[in-house]
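Re: that chain you flagged

S.,

Sorry for the slow reply, it's been a week of failed gels. I finally had a moment to sit down with the sequence you sent. For the record, here it is as I used it:
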Amino acid sequence: MRVPRFVRESRRLAALVLAALLVVGVASPAAMAQVQANAPTLSVTGMGTVTVAPDQARASLAVTTNDRLLAAAQEANTAITQKVMEALLASGVAREDIQTTSFTVWPQYSYPSPENPTQPPTIIGYQVRNELTVTVKTIANLGRVLDAG
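Prediction finished late last night. Pasting the structure tokens below so you have them in one place:
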């Protein structure tokens, strides 16, 4: 017996609607959450610690000079800093391991007495400070290098 055309079309339409409902049902958030909850997972947490013996040291050295005149304070500071650098080089420190990390100039003031508070402070001299950072690559030589500096 032959099935009428409208029945065949109705069955095809019902099959398409059923397929669409199944796809929507599987793709719904609740269905996706259930699928994800059942999915296998792998979680890894780690921490590491490395301990090594120190192989170098850094030291800071500063040269500070004071004088009534700024030029004189700077010249004295430059001369002393140069001698310190020569001593460090002679002790085996490489030139690239000596760096100026700070160079500052501060005016030195004389402040008025409490009896005369309206008088402004006056500059009576200057302080120049040159700080060097030295990297010593052989720790056993640190004491000798610092004694030289």
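What I noticed first: The chain has a mean pLDDT of 83.

Talk soon,
D.
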